[in-house]
Specification:
Layout (H helix, E strand, L loop, with lengths): L1 H32 L18 E3 L4 E4 L5 E2 L3 E5 L7 H7 L3 E5 L2 H4 L13 H6 L6 H9 L19 H10 L3 E6 L18 H21 L6 E4 L16 H22 L6 E8 L3 H8 L6 E7 L2 H15 L6 E7 L8 H14 L9 E5 L20 H13 L4 E7 L4 E7 L5 E7 L4 E8 L7 E8 L4 E6 L2 E2 L3 E6 L3 E7 L5
Parallel strand pairs: 1-15, 2-15, 4-5, 4-11, 5-6, 6-7, 7-8, 8-9, 9-10, 10-11
Antiparallel strand pairs: 2-12, 3-12, 12-13, 13-14, 14-20, 15-19, 16-17, 16-18, 16-20
Helix pairs in contact: 7-8, 9-10, 11-12
């Protein structure tokens, strides 16, 4: 009997201890809620893979003084598998980067005599050029495609259709001029040009391209890029040619373009882009060695977009060209990443940086690429016309960040959130916010009172369940509104300008 009583007492004590131990976390949380300035146990927990909603205050404060301007031109590079002007208009782009050059329009020498006609002969009479060749290649290309220089699948159509539809849509064309492409074609072309006959051929090709587009026709192409990534082996310049030889190529290219505009299109402006390189010091070098042959700094930025842009700006500042425009004519990815919502957030963040002032600012950019090249899945749109998920991230960013309009600094209290505010020509206010985390969505309190007090809004959302879709109509009250930013996602709110 005594043994049973003792056993009963021991079991009772053990049960009480278990109850107290289980109650300790609850007691700590309850006590923390009454203790100002103390962190709860949840706030110090290592984030799990499950989705959570942050409960701590998250603020976005919008400054009322103009910060800078949106990027003026946001566009895309072409892709050989498709072209549909409806895609470009839906995406909202206002520039299109195209790869011209000898492989596209002069796969064989347009003259029966190499090195003829000479530069002097062309200047004396442009009709010495074989215009029948140019009219034919631009109207009836091989295999029915202006992309005959790329493997199938190819878009079926000619140069005239491409340029006329882009012109009608008011989309600015940036046209690469190159003697050889990334497949080192055409093989007849000098690589690099060195002899007088070589330079006659190259000067004639550039002259004929510009003259055909803008004099014989009226497509209004005024932006020309000198080669494409000449610093990258395999892109048609290195290793056969050198950086110093590129300077000579730039001289002849600029001279031919300049001659067309000054002689046949007086009063029309044009722009020459260089050096169109990726991850190199060539931008610094051309600023010091050949600034007279181009007027638009041109770089490619893969990987760390912000670092690449800031580095080139620093070189421009040091060389005394701080006010000149900086174009990023290729950026994004060539590694098949456009089916990922988190990568879509990277794209939007890079566009936000590009619309920020100072050394982050980008005058114009072209994401690589709008369509797939052949079967290489590099495009925002595949060869069948299906739009990959990051197409919608680009579309959201473009709506808020294109067109040279004013921007306003938007300071976030959370390092995982990035925000910017802009105003369009109709005085509508756009707030764009991204969330870089893959596990936590955030409710944020936004203070827009420096710009607006009362306004109705339309909200778009981008995440794994919403591809730039309208999800609500928030109202701004006394300059404030609360919004939820989804995991690996973004929201865009357009607050409508009241005429009253």
């Amino acid at each position: 009997m005594k043994f049973s009583s003792r056993l009963l007492i021991l079991l009772s004590v053990i049960l009480i201890v278990i109850i107290i131990l289980n109650a300790i976390p609850l007691i700590r949380r309850e006590w923390a809620s009454f203790a100002p300035g103390k962190l709860t146990s949840d706030s110090t927990r290592t984030p799990s893979q499950t989705l959570t909603m942050a409960t701590s205050p998250n603020m976005i404060t919008v400054n009322g003084q103009q910060w800078g301007n949106r990027t003026c031109y946001i566009g895309a590079t072409e892709g050989s598998s498709r072209f549909n002007i409806a895609d470009l208009e839906d995406l909202g782009i206002n520039s299109y980067h195209m790869y011209g050059g000898m492989s596209r329009w002069e796969a064989q020498d347009d003259s029966s005599v190499y090195g003829s006609p000479t530069i002097a002969q062309i200047k004396a009479n442009p009709n010495v050029i074989n215009w029948r060749w140019w009219d034919t290649i631009m109207t009836n290309p091989p295999n029915g495609s202006d992309y005959s220089w790329e493997p199938p699948p190819r878009w079926l159509g000619n140069t005239r259709t491409l340029f006329s539809e882009l012109q009608t849509a008011h989309i600015r064309i940036i046209l690469t001029l190159r003697n050889r492409d990334d497949q080192h074609n055409p093989v007849w072309s000098p690589d690099p040009p060195q002899t007088i006959a070589d330079w006659n051929e190259w000067w004639e090709h550039v002259f004929a391209t510009v003259y055909w587009l803008d004099v014989r026709n009226n497509y209004g192409v005024t932006d020309f890029e000198i080669h494409n990534e000449p610093n990258v082996p395999g892109q048609g310049w290195l290793p056969e040619a050198t950086e110093t030889q590129y300077y000579t190529l730039a001289k002849y290219t600029d001279d031919a373009i300049s001659y067309v505009f000054h002689t046949y299109l007086p009063g029309h402006s044009y722009h020459v882009y260089a050096p169109a390189t990726s991850n190199s010091s060539w931008p610094m070098d051309v600023l010091h060695n050949i600034p007279q042959y181009f007027d638009s700094m041109d770089t490619h930025a893969y990987g760390d977009f912000r670092y690449g842009v800031e580095r080139v700006h620093n070189w421009m500042n040091q060389a005394g060209y701080a006010q000149e425009p900086l174009w990023v004519t290729e950026w994004g990815s060539y590694d098949h990443q456009y089916a990922s919502e988190p990568f879509g957030i990277n794209l939007i963040n890079d566009m936000i940086y590009g619309s920020s002032p100072g050394n982050d600012y980008v005058y114009g950019s072209n994401v690589f690429s709008l369509y797939d090249f052949s079967t290489n899945t590099t495009g925002l749109i595949d060869s069948e016309g299906n739009r990959r998920v990051d197409y919608y991230a680009m579309r959201m960013g473009i709506q808020a960040l294109q067109g040279c309009r004013p921007t306003y600094q938007s300071i976030t209290s959370n390092k995982n959130l990035l925000a910017i505010t802009t105003i369009d020509k109709n005085k509508n206010v756009y707030l764009l916010v991204t969330n870089q985390t893959s596990s936590t969505s955030y409710t944020v309190h936004v203070n827009l009172s420096a710009l607006l007090i009362q306004a109705s809004g339309i909200m778009w959302q981008y995440d794994n369940s919403h591809l730039d879709m309208i999800v609500g109509k928030p109202s701004l009250e006394n300059g404030n509104v609360s919004l939820t930013i989804p995991v690996s996602g973004a929201i865009l709110v357009k607050f409508l300008h009241s005429l009253g």
